[in-house]
Amino acid sequence: MVPLPSLLLVLVCLSGSFGQKDLLNKVFAFPASSSTAAVVLHVSNQEPLTKLTVCLRYYTLLTRPYSLFSYATRSSSNDFLIIRFNPDEYSVYVGGSVVKFKVAPKEKPSWDHICVSWDSTNGLVQFWLNGEPLPRQGLKKGYTISPEASIVLGQDQDSFGGGFNITQSFVGEISDVNLWPRVLSLTGIRMVRHNIDPRDPLIKWKSLSYTIKNEVFVEDFLVPQGV
Ligand SMILES: *[C@@H]1O[C@H](CO)[C@@H](O)[C@H](O)[C@H]1NC(C)=O
Prior knowledge:
Helix content: under 10%
Shape: globular
Number of helices: 2
Mean pLDDT: 92
Low-confidence stretches: 4-17
Largest sheet: 8 strands, antiparallel
Bound molecules: 2-acetamido-2-deoxy-beta-D-glucopyranose
Distance between the termini: 49 Å
Radius of gyration: 17 Å
Structural class: mainly beta
């Protein structure tokens, strides 16, 4: 019988060169505008997607455009993308098409929690801002997001794994990034917001495989008062 520690060591080696880290109570800090700083996320299961939900938390002082979550494939650099061009809206891309979600401008900057889901069956995109659903909008009904993604935080990819533009780079802090290959229920979304994670994510903040490119730092989550 193989002793457990050796078995674990073998499993760790088999999982490749990317460590898996529990980033609970951590953030990625993006200190400045940049055309190179980014975090690349690695997913072991590279299946095509007909449904997904992405949730994350972020805090920025930016008023210019910035990309939050860029999922590029060989068929589309915007196969799935969450990006802000204006402080009063979010743009969500699926397969290169876009829907925009208007939001009230914030009185003062603070952490925001967002979840975005898409379902190929009806094309509906759900957008949740701090646990509240916005009216659903649809796009790309019947579409399939290609396998083999290049997944990047902090930059918009205009090509597979690159084509970063400093004018859309993120500055601030990002935390609690998760992706599920399905549409989460209302209960699921509310759980995620409180860091209780629904089962079987493809990207899991509490066990994240990632590579940092250039100036991005893993730091403690500084919990604001009143949260
Ligand atoms: C970056 O984006 C700006 C604004 O959209 C554009 O004018 C500029 O050409 C882009 N730069 C690169 C290197 O793509």
